[in-house]
Structures are given as structure tokens and as C-alpha cells.
Amino acid sequence: MKYFRLLCLILLPLGLTSAWGCRMDPTPHYAYQKQGKGAVYIWDDEYSEEMAAPLSYLPDINFSRLRRLPDLAKTPDKQPSEWYPDIPLTELNTDFIVEGENTTRSYFSYHSDGRHVLWAGKLVRNPPGAPPVHAATFHVFGRFAADKDSLYFDGVRTEANEGVDFATLNEINAGASWHNGYEPEQATVLRDKHYLYLRGHRVENPDSYTITAQKSWDQRGKFTPFYPCINSPYGPWDTLAHTADRMIINGHVLDADVESFSVIRWLPGTLFIYRDKNGVKRFSLREQNAELPRHALDRKDCSAPFNMLENKVTWRKAWNGNSCETEIIPGLDPEQFHLLNGQVAQYQDRLYSVKRTVFGETYLDMITLDDPQVIIDKRFNADKQHGYLLTTSGELVVFNSDGPLVLLDKEVPREREAHTEDGQYRPNWFARDNRYVYVFDGMQLYRYATVWPLYAHIEGQHYQSGYGSALSKTGGSLVTLEGRYFHDVFEPNKNGK
């Protein structure tokens, strides 16, 4: 049986076609195969004509009885059927890797022949002094598992089983960004009616568990063009949380005092530096089953116009293949420097934009906001005397307004629809000031004079159909006393007023 991954055919640099533009390709995977009376674990790459050497030999395994253990995390009501089809437990090639946009991740399952338990091609063995693995009572929930005596995570015993209640056990949803259809935590943080389970370790006070903040490994900014069929995982991301008495990042309990805790520097997927009453501490975020993030490195990345390193921010002045010339932007705390897309970032009350002259020379443009409290969190942002546009081509456009701008649509279109770019879907952002009304379609701004700006309002905004479908239509139209506006189309009032 073949397992598949989505591959993206990027057809346009600025958007998508009305179709998904995806194809299905076989995914290389690991597999258990019979050898003599036992088994071997191999890397099975369907693209290669050569048989790979076994990664491990398992002579004690009864191959004829080897089965994948049922996973309670992948029941039909918890996972979309198109991603997790009903695969028979007799299929022994369900361990696989996914080469994503920002990282490569491995996905493994527990297997058993009734006497032994396997994880990632290795026998699950408990350390001396601990009860032996009990295959008959071994229950699985993603990377977490338990038998009658022990708890496990990624095939390693973590502690004694004090009574996991599998009837109420579930993963705590860490939330998913709109462009990620995959579970972010992979059963890293679980809870039942009594306890939390953090990477297999039991913790009290489950009701006090609260997510404090999240950071994507992709640090190019939320307004960077996205293609929905791109290899997954598009993330992942780090999750900082706390209970009444513990600080937790990605399921790891930090040696930290909750009351005096503060973040100094957070490089997603790489490094976490924090302070509490006992001083400054560093915590490595690198995981054994994940490569370094490709857009959140702790070293110079020539592919990125901005680099937010541990204690400085740089911008790329020149780029030639694998080498580049960078320059430090003085006086910036990298933890407060937030990329909006590949070319634009916000730092407190300033916007930084990497631009080119007509002669092709790169320069850094700095703009001070009228109102230091303005957060650039939409494609159309309003200030006291200016508007700030983030176009779908990645450019920052600043224009003067006649008095304070007022945005007329704070909810629609959402960023998800803004990236869909279906042929029949054209997003709209609307605003007014003391003299004009504005319509922004993601690329072009249209401005119209009106006799009574306060009358301007939006009609027809709605959300219909799903992501990636040409039937998606939102946006509505802008209505004034003069008529109705939609992009560059004007329909005057029928009475001519």
C-alpha cells in the first residue's frame, strides 16, 4: 500500500490558480520486513532502485504476528479522513518522514508482536529496576503510550503509571494557524480527567494549563505569500504555556518561577532565553526528530532580507548566491522586531522596508508611525495622517490621508481568503477619511471623493464555500451617497444623486 504527500506546483509568484494545482506522489517511508524467523527495519525509498541496508535487525520478533498498535489519537472523529485513511494494522510501512517548507519531521507508530513493543525500528526496553514492558496492556495515543506499570514517550519510559484514564485522555489543542491543517503538537501535551501529561510526564493542575504565546518556525511574517499545497508541515511552531506552578515550552517543563518569569530572547525551534528571580537561563529548542528551522536560524541566513539573531538585527545589503553582505541596524532588541513579510518589519513605532532604487541598488527605508500604538496586523492599516498597505507582491505602500483613516472592515477578508486568490474571488479592504473613501484589492488602491464620508458603509460581505475553491466569494462593496464601489468599478445611484 502506498502513502502519499501533497506536493505544490507553484504556478504564479503572486497568487494561486482557481484549482489547487497539487499532485500526489509516493512518500519515502520506513518498513518492517521479514528476515528468517525475525524481522528487519529498512528505509524504503520508492524513488531509488537500490535496496537500502537494514537499519536494525530484530531476530526476536515474530514477524507473522507483528501488527501496528491502534492509535487513539487517530480515530475518525479526531483526524480528517483524507489525511489519515483507514489503514489496516497489518500494514507495516506506516513510519514516514515529511519534507516540509520549514523543517523535516518524522512520524512513527508503535508496533507489537504480542510479546514485544517496537518504536521506530527499536525494541522498547525499560531501564533496570523498572517493571518490564507489558505488551498486553500497552495503549497508544500518538507519541504517548502507557502499559499497566509505565508511561512512555517516543518509545522511552518516562515514569510510573499512576492511573491514566484513557476514556478521557485527549490532546490539548494548541491551535493551528490558518495555513496549517496538521496537528502541531503530535500528542506532546495530553490530559485526562485528573492530570496533564507533558511528553509522557504526569503533572497536576490540568485546569490551570494556559497557552501564553506561540511562535512559528517560519519567521518570514504572516503576510508572506503562501501556497496551500506546499509540502507539510509548513510550520511547526513553538508553544509557551504555564500551569499554576510551572512554565512549559513545547511540552518541556522549564526550571523557572512562574511569578517572576519573563522572556529575553526566543528563536523558534532553536533557542529560548528567559529570566526569573534566580537569574537568566537558556534552553535549547532543538529536537532529535527535527532539522533546524530554515527561517529562524541562530546564524546568518543569506536567503532572508532581515536576520533576527540572538542579540542583534541585521539587514541584507547585497546578495550573491550563497554569500551576502549584511549590516547591523543599531539600537534594536531582536525580540521586539517583527517581520510582516520578507521585505517589511515593524519595530515599536517604526517600519523597516528593504527596497531597490531604479538602478537596482538595495537600501533600507525607515518610516515612523503617526501613532506609536498602531500595530500593522492587516493588509490595510489606518493611522492619524497615513495609510499603510502590504500588497500581495510583498511591497509596503504608504499614502497620505485627509485626517484620520477609519477602516470599515475589520473582519473580512481574513488573511486566509487574502491568500486564496481564486479566479472568482477578489478581496477588498475599505476605509474612509474626512474627504475620501478607499478600496484596496491587495495590489491596487482606489480613492474616491465623497460629499459625506460618514455615510460610507459596507454591504454584501460574507464568507462562502471553502479554502481553495473558486466558489469562494467575500469582500462586498462600498456604498456612498454617490453610488456603489467595487475595485475600479463605480455604479451610480439610480436616481442620479
Give me the secondary-structure topology:
Blueprint: E1 4-8, E2 22-26, E3 29-35, E4 38-44, E5 56-58, E6 67-68, E7 95-99, E8 104-107, E9 110-112, E10 117-119, E11 122-123, E12 139-141, E13 144-146, E14 150-153, E15 156-160, E16 170-171, E17 189-191, E18 196-198, E19 201-203, E20 210-216, E21 237-242, E22 247-249, E23 252-253, E24 262-267, E25 271-276, E26 279-284, E27 306-308, E28 313-320, E29 323-328, E30 337-339, E31 344-347, E32 350-356, E33 362-368, E34 380-382, E35 386-390, E36 396-400, E37 406-407, H1 415-420, E38 429-432, E39 436-440, E40 445-449, E41 457-459, E42 477-479, E43 483-486, E44 489-492
Antiparallel strand pairs: 1-2, 3-4, 3-7, 4-5, 6-9, 7-8, 9-10, 10-11, 12-13, 13-14, 14-15, 16-17, 17-18, 18-19, 20-21, 21-22, 22-23, 24-25, 25-26, 27-28, 28-29, 30-31, 31-32, 32-33, 34-35, 35-36, 37-38, 38-39, 39-40, 41-42, 42-43, 43-44
Provide structural commentary.
- The chain has 497 residues and is an all-beta fold.
- The protein folds into three domains: 4-204, no CATH class; 299-368, no CATH class; 380-497, no CATH class.
- The chain has one helix and 44 strands.
- A five-stranded antiparallel beta sheet has the order 5-4-3-7-8, with no helix packed on it. Strands 6-9-10-11 form a four-stranded antiparallel beta sheet, with no helix packed on it.
- It starts with a strand and ends in a 5-residue tail after the last strand.
- Residues 1-26, 178-185 and 466-473 have low confidence and may be disordered.
Query: What gyration radius follows from the Cα positions, in whole Å?
Result: 27 Å
Count up the domains. 3
Q: Mean pLDDT score, rounded?
A: 81
Compute the number of helices: 1
Count of extended strands: 44
Structural category is mainly beta
Shape: elongated
Helix content: under 10%
- The percentage of residues in β strands lies in 35-45%
* Largest sheet: number of strands, sense, barrel closure: 5 strands, antiparallel
Terminus-to-terminus distance:
68 Å
List low-confidence stretches.
1-26, 178-185, 466-473
List the strand order in the largest sheet: 5-4-3-7-8
